[in-house]
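To: structure desk
From: M.T.
Subject: fold request, one chain
Message: Could you run this one when you get a chance? Sequence is below, nothing fancy, just the single chain.
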Amino acid sequence: MPKFQSAYQQFHSTEMALIKIFNDLLLAADQGQVSALCLLELTSAFDTVDHTLLLTRLQRGFGVQGGCLAWFASYLSGRSYCVVIDGVASHVIHIMCLVPQGSVLGPLLFILYMADLADIAAQYNLTLHAFTDDNQLYIHCKPENVQSAVSSVQQCITAIEQWMAAADSDLTWIRPN
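Reply: Done. Structure tokens follow.
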């Protein structure tokens, strides 16, 4: 699990995430630093997980191989859903991307899919704390270095945007071991 990922694990609640971030901001202020905080809300993120990209990330980033990888591929493929109201069913929708919500594996697969974000943030000296699909990026600096910190945040967001676009093309950023 990523180091600063809250949700879906014991003692990692929303409250704990907020306390951690608030504490980091207060400690920086006590040292005479200012902080830049960027909140990223990835709306409907569970619904945008590309299965091929997820399987590639599981294999390359987390060492899932062979039968285990085939099991995940089987778990993700061939899924569909429909809505039934008063005995009337909607058209069947065949799922091409998303992780199944309401399952035990859905949240874990989503977290592993998004784990690269912390590594991207670290490249720009930012801290990332995630709670499912809500991500907080922040950096602390001396007041005279604000422009540099803002530039780091902007560059990091651009890198995250490029990483997220990889789901529409090919895997361009692979999590280092």
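Reply (cont.): The longest strand covers residues 34-41. Let me know if you need anything else for the meeting.
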